[in-house]
Structure formats: C-alpha cells, structure tokens
Amino acid sequence: NRVLIINSVNLHDNARYTCIGTNIAGELSNHIDLQIFVPPTIQRDPTVDSVNVIQNHHIALTCKA
Predict the structure, then answer these.
(1) Range 48-59 average pLDDT
(2) Which one, of 18, 9, 65, lies nearest residue 42 by Cα?
(3) Cut 0.90: pTM above it
(4) What are the backbone angles phi and psi of residue 11, rounded to the nearest 5°?
(5) What Gene3D superfamilies does the annotation carry (predicted)?
(6) Residues 6+ apart with CB under 8 A from 35
(7) Long-range contacts of 11-14, Cβ-Cβ distance < 8 Å, separation of 24 or more
(8) Which residues does 22 contact at the CB level (< 8 Å), separation at least 6?
(9) Among 48, 17, 15, CA closest to 32
C-alpha cells in the first residue's frame, strides 16, 4: 500500500510505471502508462501588430505554433 506522488509533472515524467505487489503467496504487477499533454503555444513577433500590403501584391504571414 504505497503511493507515488509526482509533484509538478513535466514531459520527463512521461513513462511506463510498474506497481508490484508481493507477499508469501506470490507476486503480481500492473503497468500504468503516463502520458503528459502540453497545451499549444503560439510564438509571435511582439514588434508586429499589423501589416500593410499593396493590392495585388503577395504577402506571407507566419504563425509558429
């Protein structure tokens, strides 16, 4: 009867964990796969809030997510 507590979970904790119970009658194990999900972020240039372009010209807007 033990508990594994992971404080401040991060991507390095993404793994398969094994719980092993033993007594004089034998041994039993169970696997738990821990998957860490990270919310998406958007990287933007803080110096650019608006862009002007002349009609019929080309423009490329970049969004890094």
Answers:
(1) 90
(2) 65
(3) no
(4) -60, -25
(5) Immunoglobulins
(6) 14
(7) 11/36, 11/38
(8) 28
(9) 17
